[in-house]
Write a structure and sequence with these properties.
By secondary structure, the chain is α+β, with helices and mostly antiparallel strands. It is 17% helix and 32% strand.
């Protein structure tokens, strides 16, 4: 059958056309917004409507090509994000990654909002006008957090604490260019269906099956549904479904379902979308009267000083946790390929402390809690603890080496055995 001939929606695309995949990886609207992976979401009520539209048949290859050709630079809309990774709760009721109250400090720094999107349902308002103007607002019941990128400036504002975060990237006078700000963390850039679909398609290859699986109505627009399934049995990912706007070629919804079944682990989608140019005022920001303003540039410079001397910015701002984590992960290696890639980090010391260590307190303290949520495993590598979510599993050996990936427990043990 000719390659470009329309086919039934179940035609498989198993990694053919690497050039098209490379193009597809560039289609996403550059909306500097949160999630997740990330991340990185309960949209069924929002998308209930007139059912599946009757659209012309299209092959997976042609649908991906349509996405690659899409050059939508301007849009605004509302996105609902629901994440159910099955993360354990820490003592005191906080989530495993800090809970949903901004860490309790009311910080307006973008990094402080990353972990809030790791669980629960959130509503975002997004707007984009090309690569230099984006805005996202995370709406909460009692407060709103806004992140505004305009040229070489980034503002973050938390209405709950009336705190603003500001960063200006230095210009390059010699070449008449401005540097792009680095204060928008990757996790906050990857919470739209476009960004998440891009990352999923980058993994497409001989380890992946891609098909067109029917149509859908999303945010009032007709869409094709692209179904992505790993072929590697050790992957914890069951399937990824991407609803692609039939006219614009822009992903409108992204749903990741674990192999274990149940509710989606990540579900991100527009409930309303408008492809008109947003008003210029959308990307303007002036701190409200009385707002506490933290200079992000000063924070970054001090955070990189040796031994943390002067590492706190004005008003006592500390180096972002994400930055610390990135420094700790500097020795990371990746084993395997495709959906069963495993990241490994050789730690220092002798691994996790045991809950039996009475020096941690009568109840064992944090060590006892780690023992309670992890499963002890053994292999030729020695012993260790496996910590599991619905999507990502991690093995920490007694020698301090970390193995983590969207793979099952046995794949982690096999990797540790092979690397001993």
């Amino acid at each position: 059958m000719p390659r470009n001939e329309p086919t039934e929606g179940t035609e498989s695309w198993d990694g053919e056309g690497s050039a098209r995949r490379r193009k597809a990886a560039r289609y996403a609207v550059p909306v500097a917004v949160g999630v997740v992976a990330a991340a990185t979401i309960g949209l069924v009520p929002a998308f209930a409507g007139s059912g599946s539209p009757d659209l012309p048949k299209i092959s997976a290859q042609d649908l991906i090509a349509k996405m690659a050709k899409s050059d939508v630079q301007q849009l605004s809309g509302t996105v609902k994000v629901t994440t159910d990774l099955g993360l354990p709760s820490l003592p005191g009721g906080a989530g495993a990654f800090g809970g949903g109250q901004g860490g309790g400090g009311g910080s307006a720094a973008p990094q402080s909002k990353l972990m809030e999107l790791a669980s629960g349902t959130h509503t975002l308002r997004v707007a984009s006008d090309g690569p230099e103007k984006q805005r996202v607002s995370i709406l909460d019941k009692a407060a709103e957090y806004s992140l505004v990128h305009n040229g070489n400036e980034v503002w973050g504002y938390d209405s709950g604490s009336n705190t603003a975060f500001h960063h200006t990237a230095p210009g390059n006078a010699a070449h008449g260019k401005r540097q792009a700000p680095e204060e928008v963390p990757p996790g906050l850039k990857n919470a739209t269906p476009q960004d998440l679909a891009q990352r999923a398609l980058q993994a497409a290859g001989d380890t992946t099956s891609v098909t067109v699986d029917g149509t859908a109505k999303v945010a009032g627009r007709d869409a094709y549904q692209l179904l992505i399934k790993p072929k590697q049995s050790a992957s914890t990912v069951g399937s990824i479904r991407v609803a692609v706007d039939a006219e614009k070629g822009v992903p409108l919804k992204f749903t990741l379902t674990p192999k274990s079944g149940g509710a989606a682990a990540v579900d991100v989608g527009y409930t309303s979308v408008d492809f008109a140019k947003p008003a210029a005022s959308t990307f303007s920001f002036t701190p409200p009267k009385g707002a506490k303003v933290v200079d992000g540039g000063a924070a970054d410079a001090k955070a990189h000083r040796p031994h943390g001397k002067g590492g706190a910015a004005s008003e006592g701002m500390k180096a972002p946790e994400g930055m610390k984590a990135a420094q700790d992960m500097s020795g990371m290696n990746v084993l395997g390929k495709g959906w069963t890639s495993i990241a490994t980090v050789k730690g220092e010391g002798s691994g996790l402390p045991s809950g039996k260590d009475k020096s941690k307190g009568a109840a064992g303290g944090p060590a006892a809690f780690l023992d309670s949520i992890g499963d002890t495993v053994h292999g030729s590598f020695g012993s260790g603890k496996v910590f599991s979510t619905r999507l990502v599993n991690a093995l920490v050996t007694d020698k301090g080496t970390l193995y983590v990936g969207a793979v099952d427990k046995q794949a982690l043990i096999d990797a540790a055995n092979a690397a001993k």
